[in-house]
Specification:
By secondary structure, the chain is α/β, with parallel strands linked by helices. It has eight helices and seven strands. The longest helix has 29 residues. Keywords: Oxidoreductase.
């Protein structure tokens, strides 16, 4: 895969899990990466992430649900680098629970982070990415992190499934719109299966607290057994797909769904 020495990338939810692995993968190919999350600039987790990414990586505190936060972030990147070639809309939360017991507040929070965040990022990155895409084979690249739960449903996951299904179709709509109007921006989605991340651990722990299982490890074993390759994914395995879609090697791909699920959806 060719390098990204002249590329600038932004990754939301970049301090851990898939986001951090994607940021590291993009930087390894030469991109300058802006990681965004909710921690303050001086937080130790931020310093650790930046040192692990290298290649001039920078940090922006960004609430993906807040439009002004996106406006401010784009202004900082414009002033610093004058371009944005890659946007990875990765920030997400789960919010599990049975429908009749779920609060409207929780439902709306999941949609705001997972779905609204991708919309706002795409909206406010558009101007810079449209400009940067003119001198990049295939154009600039937006990669939206959806899930296998954008295809199939699971009990007690209605809010998450709805948000990831929204990302799946938003990706296609944005890809078609940009292509139709000649904007040099590709938009694709990645659909991970079960991945070993802090988000997965936290979700399983909440399910244990609700009495769904005795321990989180039991739930991990169940989902691993339901996956044809019989294991969970490492974050790097998802990040590899993100880096490919961000690269010029994927120049003819837009509106595509890249499933990285160990064969789960083959059943």
């Amino acid at each position: 895969m060719s390098g990204m020495d002249k590329s600038v990338a932004l990754v939301t939810g970049g301090l851990r899990g898939i986001g951090l692995a994607a940021a590291q993968g993009l930087a390894a190919k030469g991109a300058k990466v802006w990681i965004c999350d909710l921690k303050g600039d001086g937080d130790a987790e931020v310093a650790d992430a930046l040192s692990g990414i290298g290649n001039g990586a920078a940090y922006l505190k960004l609430d993906v649900t807040d439009e002004q936060s996106w406006i401010d972030a784009m202004a900082k990147i414009e002033a610093s680098d004058g371009r944005l070639d890659v946007l990875v809309n990765n920030a997400g939360i789960d919010g599990t629970g049975r429908i009749h017991e779920m609060s409207l507040e929780l439902w709306r929070k999941v949609q705001a982070v997972n779905s609204d965040g991708a919309f706002l990022g795409t909206k406010h990155a558009y101007a810079m990415m449209e400009k940067s895409g003119k001198d990049r084979k295939g154009g600039s690249s937006i990669v939206n992190i959806s899930s296998i739960m954008g295809f199939v449903a699971f009990p007690e996951s209605s809010a998450y499934c709805a948000s990831k299904g929204a990302i799946r179709l938003f990706t296609k709509a944005a890809a078609l719109e940009f292509a139709t109007y000649g904007a040099p921006i590709r938009v694709n989605s990645v659909h991970p299966g079960f991945v070993q991340t802090p988000l997965l651990d936290e979700g399983f722990e909440r399910m244990v607290q609700r009495g769904v299982a005795e321990k989180a490890e039991d739930l991990k074993q169940q989902v691993a057994a339901s996956t044809p390759v019989n294991r969970l994914a490492d974050v790097e395995e998802i990040a590899n797909a993100v880096v490919f879609l961000a690269s010029e090697e994927a120049s003819y791909m837009t509106g595509s769904e890249v499933v990285v699920d160990g064969g789960y959806l083959t059943r």
